[in-house]
Protein 1
Amino acid sequence: MTHLDQLKPSMRGTIHALDVGKDLARRMAGLGLRPGSTIEVIRVGPFNGPMQVRVGHTDLMLRRSEAAHISVCLAV
Amino acid sequence: MKRIALLGMPNTGKSTFFNRLTGAGARIGNWPGITVDLLSAKILLNDAMVEVVDLPGIYNMHGFSEDELVVRRFLETQPVNLFVVVLNACQLDRQLALPLQLKALGLPMLILLNMADEAKKLGIRIDTERLTQALGAPVCLLSAKFGSGFDIAKQALAEQLKLHPKLQHADKAAFQHDDSIEQELATLVSQSIATPIQMPATVTDRIDRFMLHPWLGLPLFFAIMYLAFQVIYTVGAPLQDSLDWLFGYLKDAWLAPAATHLPLGLRSFLVDGLYDGLGTVASFLPIIVIFFMVMAVVEDSGYLSRAAFLMDALMSRLGLDGRAFVMQLMGFGCNVPAILGTRVMRSQALRRLTMLVIPLSLCSARLQVFLFFISAVFAPSTAPLVLFSLYLMSFVLVFLTALIWRGRYRSHEPLMLELPPYRLPTFRFLLLEGWRSAGHFLKAAGIFIVAGVVLVWFLTHYPFEAEPASAATLAGRLADLAAPVMSPLGLDSLLSIALIFGFVAKEIVIGALAVIYGMGGDDLSRLLAQKLDWVQAYSFLLFTLIYTPCLATLSTIKQESKSWRFTLLTVFWPLLLAWVVSFLFYQGARGLGF
């Protein structure tokens, strides 16, 4: 188990928990980031920028500071 | 009258459906207790007038983002007949959460699964029967953009309104308890939606391989921005010039002769005050319309959130995001549409910080002043360097201002943006967008601009016996009062009067100097070269670059922020900055013996 910001492009896993406040958790859930969802890192922005991830049929960008609070079980 | 509230998550094509349903008749309006404007329209549906209100896109009914608060406040205070919930059929795995939450409010719903054509292409199968049962609301498949399924959806709308003729308030208690719908959502999704296990690599993935490429992405971004900028301002500028010319022509050929018999004060007010005010408003229209059409392409194609992705590493350090950078770049043409364009940012703090930095972008009006001044005072060999230094200064001040104010305008909404598939907006939609933004600008900012122009006219023309813009006018006296503040910058009171004119629109500074000195063109250039040395001239250029945004920009800021306090900040912060920078430069240069 690791945190989302540690993942490299094309790595996948299952979201284990969102270690954030209730508000942000709701927002993340609205975008599809909920425990149990499969997540894949597509790429990372220039100059160590934000991450592009894919959850279900949604691609989204989020900053590493937020990704650090999402724990992920890596897929083998 | 019956009322429908249109709800949905961002990027579902909710607005596209709204546009198709209501056409060009939509209006932006205020609602009691709600801080943002909402788009609404009255339409005739089966012999009954129905008001359709397009609520902001939200991810969650219980969240605390500004948009979510707006939606909740609206639903708490306004009774409606029906919710129309627009969902993206490709993303039902997460979007079904919204109708599940709305169900608890106890109002009738109609569910529209938009982009049904895209979902079909992706091989997603949706059991609408089961959804209808589970949600207790009819479900229609739709492609709002291309119109398939639209007639059926409209018919369903009419039927639902007939079934629910009474306006009802939402169940207030339901807003309070945050029901856990996780389990319900998971069950509903697994029972009603079948998704192919292996998603095919889409066109979007292939385009993104270039657009978001680690090395190619940023150069492509700047190329696209350059192209957008060129389209807006090479098409817009001649239109703006011809409108200016037309207004000038009508003034000389028709208005001025017609007004000769009026008393001096009234004539001056009509011709040089009110009329010029109207002309100023009109001259912004072409650029605003074209800007919004181009920006609609950039945004609706899905590229704007990619731009945010590419620029985020830099912009996040400034407390801004990549979309702010796009608007700031566009501000180098004209600040007004750039300020209007910040509407894509949904966080108020982020928007305000962006609106604070945009006026520091060296716009084309200021460029005109600089080109004239630089060629008058500086040698041809140093001229490009001088202009370049001003552009550099513009960027430095943007960064500096963002760094200083980012603590005050800290966004509490983390930046999490969808990167939607690339899509082309329809031409019809672009026209509608251009038309609507022009109307919005006219309605809200127009009156402020005219009032401001009249105010400056009064300052520079009263008392009417005095020569306009001379030391005997109110402006002249004001400039005398300001002399102790302005002389440490190397600026005399005649230049100060020109700056007062420049508040209306920066490009007027040159025209004002022509009036003040009673000469124009080459004569004015020679006189300026005689009167000012390069240190004074550069100090004046710095001041012109930075000091208060022009009236049109300010009116737009007032309209968009809905706050006088913030608007005053955008007046006084640049003014202070202008003074400090010019002071440091002028005294520094003199101290070094120049």
Protein 2
Amino acid sequence: MNSGRIVEMALLAAVLGTAAIGSAQAAEPPLKVGLLEDVSGDLAFMGMPKLHGSQLAVEEINKSGGILGRQIELIHLDPQGDNARYQEFGRRLLNRDKVDVLIGGITSASREALRPIVDRTTTPYFYTNQYEGGVCDASMISMGAVPEQQFSTLIPWMVEKFGKKVYVIAADYNFGQISAEWNRKIMKDLGGEVVGEEFIPLGVSQFAQTIQNIQKAKPDWLLTINVGAAQDSFFEQAAAANLNLPMGSSIKVMLGFEHKRFKPPALNNMHATANWFEEIDTPEANDFKKRWHAKFPDELYINDMGYNAYNALYMYKALVEKAKSTKLDDVRKVIASGDACIDAPEGKVCIDPKSQHTSHRMRLISVGPKHEVTVEKDYGTIQPYWLGEIGCDLTKKNDKDQYTPSHLPSKS
Amino acid sequence: MSAELFSVFYQFADVFAFLILSAAGLAIVFGMMGVINMAHGEFIMCGAYVTVGLVNLGVPLPIAQILAALTAGIIGMIVEFLVVRRFYKRPLDSLLATWGLSLIVTQSMLLIVGSAVRGIGTPEGSFAIGGYTFSTYRLVLFGCAVAVLAGLYIIFMKTRFGVIARATMQNAAMAKALGARTGRIYSISFGIGTALAGLCGALYAPTMTLIPTMGATFVVESFVTVVIGGANVLLGTAPAAVFLAMIRMALNASYGQIIGQIGMLFAVILIIRVLPEGLSSVLVRRGR
């Protein structure tokens, strides 16, 4: 313990001593958590559970004494799906409100818009979505699943079960493009064939031509990584045209709960790999769902983003309490020690020191004709190993870059 | 071979229906009346939500769709009376007022109805030709688009109301001097326009995800179709939709949706550059 810390502690004790006469809680300023989630605009239906998950976690943590004895103050701003607003609100939370931690962002575009702003500060940033992977940045801690957890499990299973020919429908931005690149790489390793790839501009809602292109290409199955409410109309239109192909995805069902939003059987024969989906039936998961629905009785579905957002606060609590500090450097020392774990509703999850991404228990789920969800395969815990393998090691070097199969770190 | 030919027709019909149905209401409100209605998408959304709500209450789909269009029309007349009426001589202010209205409506829907509503599913029915399968409902949409065009033609060209309405749009003061009740004409025309927007939402409701901002997916296409259609809406909108549908369909089929969208908007820029008055200016000149 350095001398500064001792003085701090002494001061703290003095303050606590005097405050104990009045209110004990007023002794320490609250810990400020900045949250950026879309609760209006095109992605509101996905963002709302993220806000709810954060609110639930904050309420629970505050009730049980806060973090290091400090209550959490949640400051939520709604960027409405607009990347410019993400930057504006991000600056406001970081520079004006001086939050201790920043959490949020839905699309990968919004994350990449925020990251350079976060990198100029010493505030930790939690991204709570599953995504296309590859971000090697010391300021960012990723709570969601990444391609080695989602695609390296799903795609071989789809190929084995349905065949070697795949057609890809992807949203035309970084998430869709990089996810499609992952699919190409994994299909090549498996000796499969990508018979078609179609990138769809965000906001497009009409798919008659796409459906016909698919029928022309005659794939064995579809990889659907289309994003947003407009593009989701694909499922309804494909079902109406009787396309009837098996589908796989890294974002459908557990994230967009299309099986709850569309009338059966539009999502029939959809398969996805997920660390969380509301249908998980374990005592821990059921207890978590009960608490959530008690607080938010109208929630249509607890999606994986909302679940990850909930975990992010508990992970932050664990990190800060182990580090006994809210400083990014101290928190990262805990991560580097490999001891950054929490008992989440899915099971134990840990942050990988090299990439600052999270290990997850992955399950492969299938949707049936009545939109019932069944677990096909349990992969157990999968580490986020890819970034470490290609040479990202945040304990040694801060790359501040996003890598993809075609953009690897330069060997130096 | 015939399967390929039919599929080309089907794709054309699909894009054409989308353009006509989303633009028909705007053609009257913006094209004829000159009100830049930024809340056009919200009337479409209104039609979609009313349809889904009624179907969930047990009303058969076609009746729900007609009632939804009527609802949008009535709400349109109320909006005309309360807001739009004050802006007939100030088109740029009407843009701001209706934009504000659209923001208020989408946000209120989000707060009242929630961020997503469960869909009702497209009516059953698909058929196969060659290696392709098609949804029957998409052809119903095409039929509705043609019916809307025919209906508009009859209302505005063959009825007494239509003649007075066109006279009012061209010269309101003169029409008034000749005894036309221009206030009522404006109100009814605006109502027809928003009812058509509501019909568009009602017809597409079973095929789409319902969210409060869903109107936005129609707005670009509708404005583009009306603008390149030009001053004479009745003669302009249909050819504009045919033209844009052909370009978009061809590019979609060969190069995918991105190029399809870029190509269509590029064609729009070209047309506005070459024919600032829109397609109807050429057609009207030919007709004389």
Protein 3
Amino acid sequence: MTRRISRLLLPALLLMSLSACEIPFSLKDTSSPKLFVHCVPADGGTSLLVQYAAPAYGNAKTVTDFHPSSVVLRVNGEPQELRADEERDGLLHCAATLLPGDEVSVEVRAEDMPDASGSSIIPPRPVIASYTCEEVQSDTLQATRVTLSLDHAPEENEYYGLQIWTRTDLVYLEDGQPSFESREGYSAPGQAFTQQELAQIDLTDYIQVDFADGLVSGMARKAPLAILTADQFQGTDYSFYLNSADLAWIYDFAGRALPGEDGWNPDAWQERPEGNKEEDTPRRVPVAQQTTCQLILHRLSTEFYYYAKAQYQSNFDFLSNMGLTPANFTWSNIRGGIGMIGAISTARTEPFVTEAAPLLPVLPGDYSSKQ
Amino acid sequence: MHKGLFLLIPLFLMSAALPAPAAAQQMHVDTLRSATVTAIREKMRNTTQTGLMRLDADRLRSGAVAFGTPDVIKQLQTLPGVAAGNELMSGLYVHGGDGNDNLFLLDGVPLYNVSHFGGLFSSFNTDVIESLDFYKSGFPARYGGRMSSVVDVETREGDLQAWHGSVSLGLIDGRLQLEGPVIPGRTSVNLALRRSWMDVITIPAIAYANRRNGEDQTVSGGYAMSDVNARLTHHFSPRTVLDLSFYSGLDNLRAGQQKRQTVTDADGRTHDGENEMRLRVRWGSLTGAAALRHTFAPQLKSVTRLYYSRSHSDTGYDFSFWNWQDGAQTTSMNDRNRSYVREAGLKSDWDWYPDSFNHVRYGLSLQRHWYGSGREFTYESFREGAAADRDADNESGAYSSFEPALYAEDEIFLSYNFTLNAGLRYALFATKGKTWHSLEPRLSMKWMLNRDYAFKLSYTRMSQFAHLVAAMYMDLPSNNWMPSTAQARPMRSGQVAGGLYMTPFPGVTLNLEGWYKTMEHLLVYNGSNSFLPPLTEWEKSFTEGSGRSWGFEAEAGWAGEKLDVTAYYTLSWTQRYFDAFYTGWYPDRNDNRHKVNLVLNWQIVPWLTLRLNWNWHSGNRITFPSHIVKENGVAGGRYVYDAPYNTQLPDYHRLDLSLDGNFRTKRGRNLGVNLSVYNAYNRKNASLAFLTTDSEGNYSGLAYGLVPIIPTLSFSYRF
């Protein structure tokens, strides 16, 4: 009886005390609408996103259908032609060929909002002097350790971003018949292979954001970009792992059936979509695979680095709401508005085949030459 | 595992936060006489320094009380020009400072860690404090090494004639103070002990949790803090006195959990297994000093002090899991983090009156610092039929530094109404091949407009070579002190202050003071993922910026026969500039625009005194999303923050009451009863806040207050 009472009484007391602690308050510091401008000038092409930043508090009316009255992108002072993206509202593309040292500036105007402008200079293109791959193995794991060498040791305030493009080619049996599938994506560089390396990871330097279609966002979902500072290089070299967890979707399904055509995987804790019967879903059994990688190294402007770092840090905002850690912020170099114009320049390695974690038989040697 | 902990943690916190019936408070026998109060205030008017407040033992014992224990730092938090930061913590943000830039001296020895239990209690035991000088500006040249304030605490010399003492008892802690002559008339001792027994009062909670969990799961834990202050004074002659002083403060937190279970392996064999987790955290401070005071002549005196100060922390986690008792499988992991700062020094301070118009102070100090932090990690896993998996990692960072300093200051009585204090301090700081120099001018002047009105002005430069490496704004054991290095420059400040200090009527004082302060090379944590500060190459996780603060403070006081009332008001601005965060000045998190404090002491009858302390200030600042970036045709949006600390929390206010009853026993002893009520009208002040929306999509703030009314009852017995 006592236990029953305490079970009822304790949660009730906790609930009452918590609700009594709530203090609604009005937001005194009103904000007004601003232009959000996001532009990453690059030597391979430039995208520019212009959006409406609605005040989170205040009395301004929120606009639901926003179009800027004027957007001008200049390269070394010369206006450039912009093309609207067909799929995404507010996204513009510039076809101009940019070179390291070019200054790119944007000016955006819209009704009832302050003008927004900013500029950035294309940084020098990084030079990948070499890269080496080394297979490493422990009792239970194997991976590829990649060492990327630059032509010089990065100095302080020299920032890089690394993306790893991957393509996994897979041969599988579907109802006993061999079939082939290829998937592309990006993966993040692995930081540790051994427990010792795991314990030694310096997370304070670790920044990873998403960088896809020329746009940066905080959560690395689609195309992770690992930010590298001079501290993460050993002289000219930066080493990382391509391991089974990082590399490809294939390993999620290793040793199990692959999802059927309806996307349902009987071994993946998923509810079967209604209307499908198990016998209707063909089962796929992987038999061989090969993964091809390409390292994409960006030299980042300081503006890009600051913006990306702030985007990453704002993912961890709970303690700053308690006033216990430094504040969240959106780093901005857009005068009158908010956002970032931060240039990059890019170098790529040739695609190479990794032998990391061959949980399945590797494809025959002549396979890659066919691709 | 978690059930027990989830139950244990709230109970542990509740035991600390809720009606902490009774903690000890020193019985306050002597009432504050109006003459004493007036004398102290007039003394303040007569000093040359701006920004100096002197608190005597009575004031400290009767001031701010948290959990029934008089608290020095919480007392300082109520003063004008000081922001308190997070509620109940020991934050001291003076004239826009950062909280780690205050020089705490206990009998002349620097103290690095001045609080217990994350800042809930300060390390200073009011039972043994003689006086406290608190400088917010106009720093004399004899002080150096910190940027924002000086808190100079002097303990009391033991009674040379008779033994006496006091015992104070409460539920949270207990105190014992004893003083008396070792050799009557020549040698005395003053000893004070303080210990919390929160570990004792949590025993029932733990027992309850274990009873609920059953035999297969047990939890353990507890927290205790203790302090020892001792001072031995020997008078060789009226002109030569030796003081030996000692302080040790220790915090000890431990928690553990053990879970037993029977598992079946892949071969169908059953094994009795056990998982165990243990956490132990020990941190504290220790100081020891020998000071020789000698009067060579009435016009020449010296104090030579040899001292050692240490602050340390030791955090250990031990995990062992899936340990099968038949030895078929074991896994264990141990992680230990340690940090320390040690300082040994020799100081020699001289007072010389060459004539009746000059008071010269000069001296030198030689300080040696050792800073260090380290981590030991081991991992071991064994499984029958497989090779053992072992890993170990040791990481440490250690620095030593040398800091000699010289100073000279002269208080010059230029005329009967004009006094100038001109000083210069030079300090050198050398560590790991890098040497920093600091030349700090200190200038204060006082112009007596008439007998009751004084105008003061000061300019000071200060430098700080020690940096608190902390990932969070809390006094955590994991915080480390580290020295200025080639990458982390010394922090520096410059401050101009001035004001008018008046006694317009007998018993009435009115002080008006303003300041403007700049701060350079401030450091703030800019790491990404860790709540713990880095152990090595810590500079890389911090970014450098600047700060500035300006404001105005007023103090009005009236001391009557039985009633003493003081009111403080502060109007201030505090800003930061860190271009890694924002390209422009932005408000600091403790930018409290207005602050008001009302303090009342009323001796209702000779044996009963009421004390009232009302605090009000503009809310602290936090960062809320300022805008939501909308995409046409897409619901919702993503948050952006246009500037740090762009939102102000609701105003903070709180009333503390204290009722002191003093009774005399038939044997002539004093018995005291104190009833204190912290946050008397149960105001829920915001501790954290979130952005929220109503059903129509309008945004507002929602804050949570965590600190309720805390009544405490305590008893003391003085013999």
